[in-house]
Each structure stands twice: as C-alpha cells, then as structure tokens.
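USER: My hope is that you can spare some time for a protein that puzzles me. I am handing you a single protein, as its sequence and its fold in token form. Walk me, if you will, through where the backbone shape changes along the chain. The protein I mean follows directly.
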Amino acid sequence: MAYKRKIVTLVAGLPSGEIGALLRREGLFSSHLTQGRQQLAALDANTPEPKRGPKPNPSLAEKLKVERLERELARTQPRLAQAEAIIDAQKRRRRTPTL
C-alpha cells in the first residue's frame, strides 16, 4: 500500500505529459493507477475520524499509576512482615543447642 500511495501522490503533482513517462518507468498501466486511487480512497473513507472530546491528561495517567502501585505496596507489606517473622523464627530455632 505504501508503494501505491507513493505513486498516486507522485502522479497528482505531475503534469499530464509526464504521467505516462512515470508509468512506463515503473512498469505500470493506467488501470493500475486507477485501481490504486480507488483502493486508497476506500481506505481513507474507512479510516475513523479522530475522537472528539477532552485530550487525555498525561499527569492523570501518572497519578493513577502511582495510586495503583501504592495499593499494591500496601497489600504486599503485611505479607513481607509475615515472611520476615517466619524467617526470624526459623533462625532462632536453629541457634538453640540440642542436648
């Protein structure tokens, strides 16, 4: 599609006498040019319009990410404290001499 778009835009800027020379140089027929124009017009017609409304706020996205990470940290801190307590208890058990 990029090649077709390139050729169609080149032809649009050329005077009529040079279009034939371009087509011969590229090994194309005028029907290829017509089909390319139709396909590109159909693609452009199917391209959705840009969304209307307020622009996304990048600082809001960062704020939401920070809040999500803070919630995740608050959820994992108790698990970390519990794991550290278990590890300390296991260390103490190994230190006690057995008789």
Q: What stands out?
A: The radius of gyration is 34 Å. The chain has a mean pLDDT of 86. Residues 2-46 form one domain.
